[in-house]
Amino acid sequence: TSWYVRTLELDPGHAAARAGLLALVDDERCRTQAVAALARAYEATGDWREALALLDRRVALAIDDAARAR
Q1: Stretch 24-46: mean pLDDT, rounded?
Q2: Which of 8, 29, 48, 70 is surrounded by the most beta carbons within 10 Å?
């Protein structure tokens, strides 16, 4: 997960890193990190459709109501 995250920090549009993290979104061990990194990448590149597709997972991971509202 960390290599994908680092890659997206340098290049938020990197297709292979995005695909790798998307494959890990359903893995409990790295779900939180994968979703957060993808959300940042989508925001940085203006990919609002991808960001919306990730919204349910982000809400499910939110700790409290304040975090869910973000």
Answers
A1: 94
A2: 8
